[in-house]
# Entry
Amino acid sequence: AQSVTQPDIHITVSEGASLELRCNYSYGATPYLFWYVQSPGQGLQLLLKYFSGDTLVQGIKGFEAEFKRSQSSFNLRKPSVHWSDAAEYFCAVGVSAGNNRKLIWGLGTSLAVNP
Amino acid sequence: EPEVTQTPSHQVTQMGQEVILRCVPISNHLYFYWYRQILGQKVEFLVSFYNNEISEKSEIFDDQFSVERPDGSNFTLKIRSTKLEDSAMYFCASRDSPLNTGELFFGEGSRLTVL
# Structure
């Protein structure tokens, strides 16, 4: 069965520190992978996505993620965190069923940023 | 920038009452979705809709739920007789491409509280 695991429920980092949020997926076919961010009171905004090609993808707000097929992982990284990055981060995998596509989501990682 | 809009942002209702959550997808999009997120749990797929019919629905989407596109712009989710466990954040999303690579645009969500 398809699934997404985000092992870290909550992470706290200091402003300016580097960040890595972990994501592991289980999907039998070629995965289409996404990271979304949800700020307090806001909707879900796409940070970046991986479909094929270069395994290191760049997203908005200075985020990047690396797809590692051997580890079934798609970890999100940022070299220097800003206070405005405090939010909930969701990893998701796109799956197909017939002509329909949907997203399977991880539980999310809540990021707090200390000044 | 085009966006998905949802109303109401928050609705409180009594158990057993009917609720309609409204969404205005991005105007040129053809594929519409409802997801929900119960507090502390994963975002879950409810239903997808294309060409005026349901493409796929999850086990959660039982007979109490229905979706409709009553005109060219709105996409609604109706819960006929709400239960306590329907309390959640409901997200509407739309996409212009049928491909798994097509980005899903989300609204800011409608928080439903059932008392």
